[in-house]
Amino acid sequence: MKKYLAVGLLAASAAIPAHAALDVGVMAPHFVTQASLGGKEFRFSLAAALKKGPVVLYFYPAAFTKGCTIEAHDFADAIDKYQALGATVIGVSHDDIEKLNRFSVSECRSKFPVAADPDQSIMKSYDAVLPVFTQYANRTSYVIAPDGKIIYMYTDLQPDKHVANTLAALRKWAAKHKTH
Question: How many domains does one find in the chain?
Answer without folding.
Answer: 1
